[in-house]
Amino acid sequence: MAYNKKPYSPPPRRRSSNVIRREFERHLSGKPTSDRSMLSFSRFVARAFSRTVLLILIVFLVAVFLIGGIGGGMLVGYFMTAEPVVTEQIRNTNETTRILDANGNEVAILTGSQNINREYISLSRVADTYIQDAFKAIEDERYNEHIGIDPRRIGSAVITMLANSGTPTHGGSTITQQTVKLVSGSDQRSAQRKVQEWYNAIQLEQQKSKDEIMELYINLVPMGNSYVGIQSAARAYFDKDAWELTLVECAFLAGIPNRPATFNPLTETGRRNALRRMRIVLSKMHELEMISDEEYEEALDTELIFRQTPQTVTGTQINSYFVDYVIEEVMRDLQERRGYSEQMASIAVFNYGFTIETTMDARVQAEIEETFKDESLFMTNPDALVDSPEKPEGGITVIDSRSGQIKGMVGGYGEKEGNFLYNRAVSARREPGSSIKPLAVYGPALDMGRITAASVFTDREYEIPNPGSPDPIYIPRNAGGGHRGNMTVREALTRSINTINVHIWRELLVPLPEEGNEPLVNLSYEYLRQAGFEIPVNERALPSSSVGGSYGVTTLEMSSAYTAFANNGLYTKPFAYTRVLDLEGNVLLENRPSFQQIFKPETAFVMTDILVDVINKPFGTARSLTDIAAMEMPFAGKTGTTDDNNDKWFVGYSPYYTTAVWYGYDRQFGRKEILPEDLNNAMRIWEDAMTRIHQDLAPTAFNRPDTVDEIMICPDSGLESNAYCPAAYLEYFIPGVMLNPSESCDLHGPEPTPSPTPEPTPEPEPEPEPEPEPEPDDDSPEDNQEDDTDEGESDDDASDSDD
User: Fold this and answer.
1) Dist CA 435 CA 501 (whole Å)
2) Which H, E and C letters describe 510-546, residue by residue?
3) Cβ distance 401 to 563 under 8 Å?
4) Tag placement on the chain: N or C end, fewer CB within 10 Å?
5) SS3 per-residue string spanning 189-258
6) What residues have CB less than 8 Å from 121, skipping those under 6 apart?
């Protein structure tokens, strides 16, 4: 309650009768006022002392005048050199960037080099709380009245410091002065800085309204533990937003900035100190009539409920490989699409308070991270690698088969121990081996009608022209050696036969002219280019490229390319985020799928059906994936192996997800061969990850276009089977292809019936001749027994590998 007080004025001074009498006597004529020749010693000393004091006073006044002039000049100098307070860009400086998963949940925050965790909030959002009153009560009770500085508050701070043994209950700076200091970042202790702070505070009050200054303050005030501003503090300490704060919570937060380390809510001692400080704030609010008696008493009796669990997302946490990748992608896109420099892109991402909406599925990411922590999937026999200078590594990328969104990514074996480590999922470029065959050879040849799944080729030795190479002839060899003779395209891909693959590539996709070294056309490369691959010019026409033996690729590139088979032949460039918003909510960057039809839908289905056989058939190169094959969900995929077993791949997909896995060594000490017992680890890693991420997903079939034809085929001839074919299977065909079988098998049919012959006319029996004497038995003839046993070739090799 305010009281009206009358101004104090002292009563008029009354002169005594003795003084009046002496003054009267002094002015009487004819009588001296004093005898100047008869001064006493005491009066002489008194007069000398008074004159000395007068002289000192005169000197002091002159000194004050001179010093005041110099001091005035210094003040003017301080004012002229004071840097103006710029607040226009304050919301774009040291703001926390937040990274969200596909469901809008926070998975990471970026707090910049200063590790400042701040989330800007407007004053209007907290207008219905007590936060303003709490700060004013304890920090600046005359905030609404002063011009930026408050001399009374400065004096009050000195008095409370003396009364509390050197510990003031509040500072001498106003909220405006504190805001100036927080904006400028100056922490010097000098008379010049203080004078300039006063000057800038007065200037700020002229430029901004009280509400605008308060909004700056509540977003810049340090709240301990790297939290800056009331919004991040409210979330950290009470697990709520600032506009939900109660009276006691507001008082608690308002007490922290005085000494954040002393009033640290995350330590036991600091929390006790902060609670005592909170009561001081409440008392001051009550004293200033900001709260009623009832509110004050209720607040004192209210128990604060703090956040029960620590924040899982912090500015110092180790982020996932996915988060590292999306940060790098955003910085790259800011440069390419928005014209940022590399340095400015980095500053903006870490300090400008962006919101990055990613495509990451938190469940998928967590599951594949668990897969990559399983030692048994990477080292079948760890003791065999004890003396090895490096351990096996791997990378995995999971993409939504329909949308092209990246759902998960891991770039190394084991627990991630830092941020922005080497990410093998996107940075390790390794030869893909046979996993490239569906994309570089069989897919394009099927799509163009150059072959069908039932076309028959011969597995034999081929001499492939290889112009421009030191070896003019390239001879492809199968894993394990040997040849199998005639077989269909389906079987050749399922078994991963190299000879037929390279033969189709050279003869049907990359043919050479009769004269010259340059191919007439490179249909294989055109399909790979559309699927997102960037292949060096000098490697595009090498026969070895058809079996993945020249250029390097990443798991991201392989998984994204295979989505075309899983998604009816449609391909879109993969992306890790959908939008990037600035602090105001404006869209800076946006990604949307942009599909193009690489393969016909019928081609994608036929290819998928063949790749299902790679897993399910007893002669498929991925036949060891028995667990995944037993699931109701259909899966398709392809193995890949490079020379000398340096790299292992498996790329596979379901109607939900497409996943690529690479397994091998970093080659820090040169090429290193994978141990024999680890040759299937890429498949095992893929199987474990896909089993995990498909839990609780309803089984669904791959889409089959209505236009796909189906015919029972004889595997020996590749033609329509008949009743005499020893074997037949159902094959799928792309409609309208001239090579589709239109005739019945000509290799099998009824055996020809012999024509009837007339019975011979009986002839008379000749007369018997005398029987000759038997010759002596020298040697009995030896039986000529032919060996009809099979050659006994294994599949590609004992470890399901292929080249």
Assistant:
1) 12
2) CCCCCCCCCCCCCHHHHHHHHCCCCCCHHHCCCHHHH
3) yes
4) N
5) CCHHHHHHHHHHHHHHHHHCCHHHHHHHHHHHCECCCCEECHHHHHHHHHCCCHHHCCHHHHHHHHCCCC
6) 218, 219, 229, 230, 231, 242, 243
Write down the residue that tokens 């009267």 correspond to.
24
What b/e readout covers 454-464, taking b as 16+ CB neighbours within 10 angstroms?
A: bbbbebeebeb
Q: Confirm if 754 and 723 have CB atoms less than 8 A apart.
A: no
The mean pLDDT value of the chain amounts to: 84
Question: Which DSSP symbol is given to 319?
Answer: P
The CA-atom distances, in angstroms, between 616 and each of 521, 634, 637, 801 are 36, 10, 10, 16
Q: Is 787 helix (H, G, I), strand (E, B) or coil?
A: coil
Q: What is the 3-state secondary structure (H, E, C) of 719-779?
A: CECCCCCCCCEEEEECCCCCCCCCCECCCCCCCCCCCCCCCCCCCCCCCCCCCCCCCCCCC
Q: What is the distance between the alpha carbons of residues 132 and 147, in angstroms, rounded to a whole number?
A: 18
Task: Give the integer Cα–Cα distance in Å for 565 and 598.
Answer: 9
Pairing mode, strands 97-100 and 355-358: parallel
Quick one: tokens of 503? 């033969």
Q: Do the strands 473-474 and 464-465 form a parallel or antiparallel pair, or are they unpaired?
A: antiparallel
Secondary structure letter of residue 124 according to DSSP:
G
- The DSSP symbol for 788 reads -
- Percent of the chain at pLDDT exceeding 90: 64
- Least confident span in 135-139, 282-286, 417-421, 768-772: 768-772
Q: What is the pLDDT of residues 157-173, one digit of tens each?
A: 667 666 666 566 556 78
Contacts by residues 378-383 (CB-CB < 8 Å, ≥ 24 positions apart): 378/413, 378/663, 378/678, 378/681, 378/685, 379/678, 380/675, 380/677, 380/678, 380/681, 381/675, 381/677
Q: Cβ(418)–Cβ(681) under 8 Å?
A: no
**3-state secondary structure (DSSP) of residue 399:** strand
Measure the CA–CA gap between 68 and 54, rounded to whole angstroms: 21
Three-point CA angle 79, 82, 85, nearest 5° = 125
Q: Look up the pTM and report it.
A: 0.75
Q: What angle do CA 104, 105, 108 make, to 5 degrees?
A: 115
CB atoms within 10 A of CB 149: 18
Contact 180, 203 (CB under 8 A): no
Q: How confident is the model at residue 33 (pLDDT cuts 50, 70, 90)?
A: very low
Residue among 577, 135, 123, 500 at smallest CA distance from 326: 577
CA distance 25 to 33: 8
Amino acid at 300: L
DSSP state of 649: E
Write out the H or E segment, with its range, that includes residue 653: strand 647-653
Tell me whether strands 355-358 and 393-400 are parallel, antiparallel or unpaired.
Answer: unpaired
- Residues 6 or more apart whose Cβ sits within 8 Å of residue 232: 96, 117, 118, 119, 223
Identify residue 472 by its one-letter amino acid code: P
The amino acid at 613: D
Give me the residue label for tokens 């498909």.
694
CA pseudo-torsion sign 546, 547, 550, 555 = positive
d(CA 205, CA 145): 11
516: left (phi > 0), else alpha (psi -120 to 50), else beta? left
Written as one letter, the residue type at 536 is P
- 318-367 pLDDT, tens digit per residue, is 999 999 999 999 999 999 999 999 988 998 999 888 999 999 999 999 99
How far is residue 264's CA from residue 252's CA, in Å, rounded to a whole number?
11
Instruction: Give me the DSSP letters along 546-573.
Output: GGT-SS-B-HHHHHHHHHHHHTTTEE--
